[in-house]
Fold this sequence. Notes:
Blueprint: H1 3-24, H2 30-48, H3 50-59, H4 65-111, H5 113-116, E1 127-133, H6 140-149, E2 154-160, H7 166-176, E3 181-187, H8 193-211, E4 215-220, H9 230-243, E5 254-258, E6 265-267, H10 271-288, E7 300-303, H11 304-307, H12 319-329, E8 334-338, E9 340-342, H13 345-354, H14 357-372
Parallel strand pairs: 1-2, 1-4, 2-3, 5-8, 6-9
Antiparallel strand pairs: 4-7, 5-7
Amino acid sequence: MSLLQFIILLSAIIFIFFGIDLYKRKKMNILHFLVFFIGGGVVIVFALNQDLLNRFGSFFGIARGADLLVYMALILLFYFYIDVLNKHTKDRFQLTRLISQTAINQWYAQDKAQIASRQNVGEKDNFVFNIRAYNEEKVVGKVIDEIIHEGFRKIVLINDGSSDNTLQVLQDKKKQYPDALIIILDHTINRGGGAANQTGYNFVKKYGDELKIKRFVSFDADGQMDIKDMETFMKHIHADQKLWLDLENKKPDLYIASRFLEWSKVENMPGFRKTILRIAKLVTRIFYGTKVTDPHIGYRVISLPALRKFVLTADGMHYANEVNEQIKRYHMKYREIPVHIRYTEHSLTKWHRQKNSNSFKLASEMIYKKIFFR
């Protein structure tokens, strides 16, 4: 027996032992059975009979049977990579769920009396703002000031494990505005923009009735969004309510901002960023069937019943794809709203820090979640 035959034979036996271990741990499925037992047995036969291996390889147009084993090994490596990646992704889901639920429960244990003591005094109290913040100490205070000064008094703030003074800024603003309902949910470690939104979504889904709100507003902490655009959102909401007064089910479920409508105004958007967003629009239509002009903008106004249909699992910015996918799945009605987006020095610096390669990472995650994740 040659050294190559011995190595192949030993590898096949190890494969079979892996399969036995999976079976004992009750983790076995049909694919595992085919790979570890059937595949291991076939490799043992090929290792002991090279002529049979060569004949089998020639059936696929391969001159040497050993080359066939190399190709098979590459396929198995890819399979194992996807299998490990799936397990890692599920573990991340569980960790994020734990951190998210801990943040919600911790707040409820300490400050639940805030909700019960608040009464709505105007239409703007029907809205709650959801703001995720990670290392935004320089700008998030001003964003909160703008929201409060515009008359909105309910804000859910998610501090996503910031390493700077963001949490302190949020706490200071809560003290500064005692008449506002400012809720701070604190992640013990940074989990990503999608995870922070997941916490905000889940909090409002659970306590929306106690908050006495009708609509959820997704808003950014970096100063790019203009709170005055809420006037446009509310104008369209009023118009739709009058139009469909007797047909509740025909009212839009959500209102989505767009940087690419006729009356939209965008300041200082980098050309490459604009190109990436237009590509994202095309990809969203192909993969998810949602015909929105700006699928990755975070500015959205969602009715409470619609919000309760959304389930977010992604830690990173892939959450936007999850939203778009569920809009299509649940046949949600939506209206796109022109907005004013300002790319400031701070937001551009943050964007460059995140690197353009994140766009390709997002695309890779989208393909993986759509095709390989189970």
